[in-house]
């Protein structure tokens, strides 16, 4: 979980598009090459889709089903392996609960899982259906000026169906709803891979047959080291290595691109979308858009009493900030924040710290200013961090003067589309109720008139 998200990932030493080289070590990432095969030669690695703190993700060809899939290869340390097994138990529940429910198709499905022995240890691997761009990419493609309302309505409706499935059918809280974790389904993936990348049935067209690569040898160049440096590097050495790696990666990227393969996730995704929208305006092209909730790596069971820190900063609910017990309604708060971002290109809440108050202080103040309501006594007086933020009368300790501006007025100032602002505010407000006990549910809000 990103406790404070800033879009770029500072975990990467070299670029935002590459994982940390020094995490290729025992307990860390598994070194993967394009063309590697995993799990008894079933999955052939084709392209790199992305990476996170705990794993790398690869597009692969499944020789058994003759379909393209996404393979998530988790770091090998016990901590990450245990986390992966917990995620698998949640994903199994999602897969088995009620496939006939309308929300089932709006949650990314686990297809397979296995363990892989590599030079850095035993890695849990999860296989998912291959999906397209994230909603963050969609926001960027519309230049942060807002995704057209008809598209957002379809997206919000489908996410609500997916959340209702997770909450009611599976008893699961996602805990990290945000644009990066909702992916667009691409129905013509095979066609796109053939047209844009020359890939057919896991093989690049016009490629000469290559010797079958092994999956347990160290990578051939320093861009993917398989072990830790023997001695600590000086600052100057690190700087030189960084420059060298940058040149190597650029050279590798140039060669790959000349041959029709791109390693960066968004290159694949943007190519697929351009193909999808060719000859149509944006609204027409997305009339049949299908989205799926992805990344259950931080999900929890509803039946557990949870109060630990969750959610990415901009989508975090008040009860989480204050250290209260939270439930599935925290996902609805995040969804409302995401709907605003999709429509406007801006964050609904974007707190800043000063010398006088913390980012959390400002975040709570922004919530109070927007919703114009008081937090309940159980949140201002009885939570883990209540005393940090509130006095005994429930007033903020560090920010005295609030500037109230309701949701309708904020939308009027920032929302540039020809749409019913009052109806939109009515849709969003029940998801942004400060008292989570009074906040709406996915089932209760999914038929709201604004969506239809």
Q: Per DSSP, what share of the residues sits in E-state strands of 2 or more residues?
A: 5-15%
Structure summary, number of beta strands: 12
Secondary structure class reads alpha+beta
Q: What level of helicity do the residues show?
A: 25-40%
Number of helices: 15
| Largest β-sheet summary | 6 strands, antiparallel
**What would CATH call the architecture of the domain at 305-452?**
Orthogonal Bundle
* Lateral strand order in the biggest sheet: 1-2-3-4-6-5
Q: Mind telling me the C-alpha Rg?
A: 23 Å
Average of per-residue pLDDT values:
84
Order of helices and strands: EEEEHEEHHEEHEEHHHEEHHHHHHHH
Model regions low in confidence, pLDDT < 50 over at least 5 residues: 5-16, 210-230, 255-281
Task: Please name the CATH topology of the domain at 305-452.
Answer: Transferase(Phosphotransferase), domain 1
Q: CATH homologous superfamily name of the domain at 305-452?
A: Transferase(Phosphotransferase) domain 1
Gross morphology is globular
**CATH secondary-structure class of the domain at 305-452:** Mainly Alpha
- How far apart lie the N and C ends? 33 Å
Which tags fit this structure?
452 residues, alpha+beta, Transferase(Phosphotransferase), domain 1, six-stranded antiparallel beta sheet, two-stranded antiparallel sheet, 15 helices, 13% strand, globular, EC 2.7.11.1, nucleotide-binding, ATP binding, ATP-binding
Give a short synopsis of this structure.
The protein is an alpha+beta fold. It has helices spanning 78-96, 135-141, 149-169, 189-197, 235-258, 265-277, 282-285, 318-322, 329-344, 359-371, 377-381, 386-389, 407-414, 421-428, 442-445; strands at 37-38, 43-51, 55-62, 67-74, 110-118, 121-129, 172-173, 182-184, 199-200, 203-204, 291-293, 300-301. The chain has a domain at 305-452: Transferase(Phosphotransferase) domain 1 (Transferase(Phosphotransferase), domain 1).
């Amino acid at each position: 979980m990103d406790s404070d998200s800033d879009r770029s990932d500072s975990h990467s030493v070299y670029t935002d598009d590459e994982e940390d080289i020094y995490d290729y070590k025992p307990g860390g990432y598994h070194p993967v090459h394009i063309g590697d095969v995993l799990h008894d030669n079933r999955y052939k690695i084709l392209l790199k889709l992305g990476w996170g703190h705990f794993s790398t993700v690869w597009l692969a060809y499944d020789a058994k089903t003759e379909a393209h899939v996404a393979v998530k290869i988790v770091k090998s340390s016990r901590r990450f392996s245990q986390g992966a097994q917990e995620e698998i138990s949640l994903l199994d529940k999602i897969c088995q609960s009620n496939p006939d429910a309308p929300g089932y198709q709006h949650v990314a499905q686990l297809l397979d899982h296995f363990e892989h022995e590599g030079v850095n240890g035993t890695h849990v691997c999860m296989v998912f259906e291959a999906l397209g761009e994230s909603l963050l990419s969609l926001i960027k493609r519309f230049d942060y000026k807002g995704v057209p309302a008809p598209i957002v309505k379809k997206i919000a409706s489908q996410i609500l169906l997916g959340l209702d499935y997770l909450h009611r059918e599976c008893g699961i809280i996602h805990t990290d709803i945000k644009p990066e974790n909702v992916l667009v389904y691409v129905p013509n993936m095979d066609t796109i891979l053939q047209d844009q990348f020359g890939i057919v049935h896991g093989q690049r067209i016009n490629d000469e047959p290559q010797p079958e690569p092994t999956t347990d040898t160290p990578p051939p160049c320093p861009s993917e080291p398989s072990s830790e440096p023997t001695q600590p590097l000086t600052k100057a050495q690190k700087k030189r290595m960084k420059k060298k790696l940058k040149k190597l990666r650029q050279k590798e990227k140039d060669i790959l691109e000349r041959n029709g393969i791109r390693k960066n996730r968004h290159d694949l995704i943007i190519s697929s979308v351009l193909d999808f929208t060719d000859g149509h305006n944006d609204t027409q092209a997305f009339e049949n858009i299908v989205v799926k909730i992805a990344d259950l790596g931080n999900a929890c069971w509803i039946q557990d009493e949870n109060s630990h820190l969750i959610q990415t900063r901009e989508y975090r609910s008040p009860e989480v900030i204050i250290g209260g017990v939270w439930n599935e309604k925290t996902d609805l708060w995040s969804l409302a924040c995401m709907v605003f971002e999709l429509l406007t290109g801006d964050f609904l809440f974007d707190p800043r710290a000063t010398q006088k108050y913390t980012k959390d202080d400002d975040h709570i103040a922004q919530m109070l200013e927007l919703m114009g309501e008081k937090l309940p006594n159980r949140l201002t007086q009885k939570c883990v961090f209540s005393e940090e933020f509130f006095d005994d009368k429930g007033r903020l300790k560090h920010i005295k003067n609030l500037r109230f501006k309701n949701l309708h007025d904020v939308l009027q100032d920032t929302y540039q589309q020809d749409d019913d602002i009052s109806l939109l505010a009515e849709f969003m407000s029940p998801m942004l109720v400060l008292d989570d006990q009074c906040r709406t549910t996915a089932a209760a809000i999914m038929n709201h008139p604004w969506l239809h």
